[in-house]
Amino acid sequence: MSEQLKRIVLRALVVGLLAALAGPVVPAQAAEPVVLLSQGRPTVASSLEKPEFPARNAVDGNSQTRWSSAFSDPQWLRIDLGRSTVVHRVEIDWEVSHSTGYSIQLSDDGETWETHWFGAGDGGQDVHNILGEGRYVQMHSTQRSGTAGNSIWEMRVYGEAEKKAAAPAQQASPKPESSAEASAKPSSSPKASPSPSPKASPEPSRSGPPGSVLYYVIKATPDDNVEKLNDIAARFLGDAARWPEIAELTEGHQQPDGEYMTDPRKPKPGWVLKMPKDATGEGLQFGPLPGYAQASSSPGSSASPSPSPVADVSDAEAASSTVPWLTIAWAGAAVLVLGLLVGLAIWLVRRRKRHEPFDDSLLRTDTSAAWTVDRALRVLMAACERDGLEVPGITGVFIEGSSLRLRLTNPASPAPEPWTVSEDGQSWSAPLAKLQSGAASEGSTAQFARLVNLGMGETGRVLVNFSVARGVISLDGPTRVRHEVLRRWLGELTGNPWSNEPRVVMVGNGLPQPEQVEHLAGIEQVVPELEVGDGGVLVLSQAPSAAQQDMLAARFASPEFTWVVIVLGQSSSAKWRFTAGDDGWLRSGFLPDVRFDEQTAVRRGGE
Hints:
The protein has helices spanning about 5-20, 180-185, 230-235, 245-250, 315-320, 325-355, 365-385, 430-435, 480-495, 545-555, 600-605, and strands at about 35, 45, 65-70, 75-95, 100-105, 115-120, 125-145, 150-160, 215, 270-275, 285, 395-400, 405-410, 420, 425-430, 450-455, 460-465, 475, 505, 520, 535-540, 565-570, 575-580, 585, 595. A hairpin with a 4-residue loop joins β16 (about 450-455) and β17 (about 460-465). The model is unreliable at about 20-30, about 165-200, about 295-325, about 350-365 and about 600-605 (pLDDT under 50). About 25% of the residues lie in helices and about 25% in strands. Strands 1, 2, 3, 4, 5, 6, 7 and 8 form an 8-stranded antiparallel beta sheet that branches. An 8-stranded mixed beta sheet has the order 20-19-21-22-18-23-24-25, covered by helices on one side.
């Protein structure tokens, strides 16, 4: 029996025994109902692994959807309960990729936090009985269980239900950001004054139905360009450097045209930006986000009384006083059996997920790492242009903790700020924080078009520039494994923000068959096109013949030849040789060993 199943069974036994041994319950004199407060509430996160795993998935009540963060530390998940209330319990259902060190924090304003629990995590389901008061509840992780991010199926917050108003004249809106919930309540006072005219103030009225938020619709500029996030941040927040806040709030939300904002540098007219609560200015709107999927009736999201998904404690206590002790014991046994069945079902579902069949389709790039690297490359370009330096050739990129290191093709010195040069001049390094806030170039990144994310090494993420090989690259290993690595490489070469969408040609039998690429029977069919053009990616199912090796060597001798040639299997003519193992490691001999599938690595480690 696995450790996770043991924990589930143990928890179920404890719940059943407590229920069975409980005697007649004496109704509490002043007990407040404890209900589920978090389901359907507005939720934001520090980052997303992909748009398919947004923060709202952690509070949707669906155990098959999840939030997943970027593959870095720290990370957080924050729930807005809509009002300040007493919180009694926080439950977290972790996916296999979990936090091993995190805290549960409460806040009234979303800025000043009070920690109510801190400790180590081991995955599975965590239940924290706390007693605190706040509007915002946050899980703040400082350490992950592996190389993947934090991933949560569900996060549930239980606390006191909202009290019914004793007198209709009483209204409380102590803070501007709480006015949305106050305005959602139907007013019963005949003296309520109408909202001021929009012309009297540039701020929106901030009154709307439950779930309303502050937002802005991107417009085209007079010169047919599109408004940039930093300009929008400067106008409504008074600080252009706060544009990441807007991007973070908007990331993962489907736009009215069905797309997602995966690149904050490329917004489109008509897209909707969710704005921070302190944004002010003409053009802002308040209400349900246009085009976004909104929960029409989420428990805890409405100011008016609504049925709660959790039974009222006071009602249960009143009923329990008339229930015989034996009936309670039988109920405890039923809870025990139900707990065991639910625990077994969850374990079986998660175990099945570990053995999903392999998909040979192209894998899109890891957006969280890709945009970090893209930003760093553009800051590099802008800094070199500023100091009148030539942008150096790059062999590899290494994300190591809080810094990013470039391995150069040739030593170069000096380096522009914020970069520093190694003693041998072969590497440039810079803090990630400065790279994310520095000025970035909007120029072409074509020189980095063949930069590929190989995976995670012991010190961090490893990327290598395939164009530097100037020869055949071989990929060996078991067929299924090397096919998986190949599809990831192709996803990187065609889907990264710096890639130039190269032509991909596969030659031979026994290769994956994604629709996005061309398939040819022999290399002779593509040889004439290897002479000219913008280059591409050529994948061979077997090592080239001696004549083909000579032909490719002659092509690579020309600096204008920009094709990447990958051979599946061993090749004596290969300049770079990679071996993929069933253990998830990719080895080359000239680069650090990396885990090519971070998620698989974490799951195997947890089995």
